[in-house]
Amino acid sequence: MPTPHAPPPPSILDYVPGLASGVSPTDAGEIHVYRVDLGPGPEGDDFRAMEEWGRLSDDERARAGRLVRPRDGRRFVRCRGALRSILGGLTGVPAPEVRFRVGPGGKPALPPEGRGETSAWRFNVSHSGELALIAVARGLELGVDVEQARSIQQADRIVQSYFTAAEVDEFLKLDEEGRAAAFIRGWTRKEAVVKAQGVGLAGLATEFETLFGTPPPDDRFRPCAPWPVVLGWTLWEIAPRPGYVATLAVAPG
Fold it and tell me: Fewer CB under 10 Å: which end of the chain, C or N?
């Protein structure tokens, strides 16, 4: 559990379509993580008939249209539409008019609010299966990764490629069932850190250790164990929905 001097845990909130105007700005240092259901609605996989379609830019619509599987187009449209609604609610900009820029390392960001100024709002997005997480904060860089719990083929080989020697040793001491759960936990931790930094996973993940942790996360954010701070980033983990695991990396306040 956090110490008395530790930052308060992020809030996990359910995104409700159609209530974008009810999204309240967060105070400095407060972090909101929105849980977005990407499952099919009455339109099924006809993503062009979805309400979110009207919020997207031409480039986003073209991207959705290039996806081979209709379900992937539906998930993309629902996630991007939710992101626009949330950021529009925070900035006071209509969702279809929210603009994005590419930040350092290709990390998406909001454009400057004025000449020579950067936007105070930071955000990061991750999705897996039928769930997306959208993390937002004022003045705090962050990165989030969510993964659907599943068995990963060649997990041993991936760990040996992207994890440190100490992490490999810890992983190989687990039984098969333990490895499957540990891999997902460890992978989201690595991804959250590199996404927060705006860098790629390849070639960098072996430069820092997060370890895997043994207690499974629950439905509220709690500090990662055994190390809640890695490279100065505070790591929080959660099971945002049964069958999913996520990690949030937050810059020092």
Answer: N
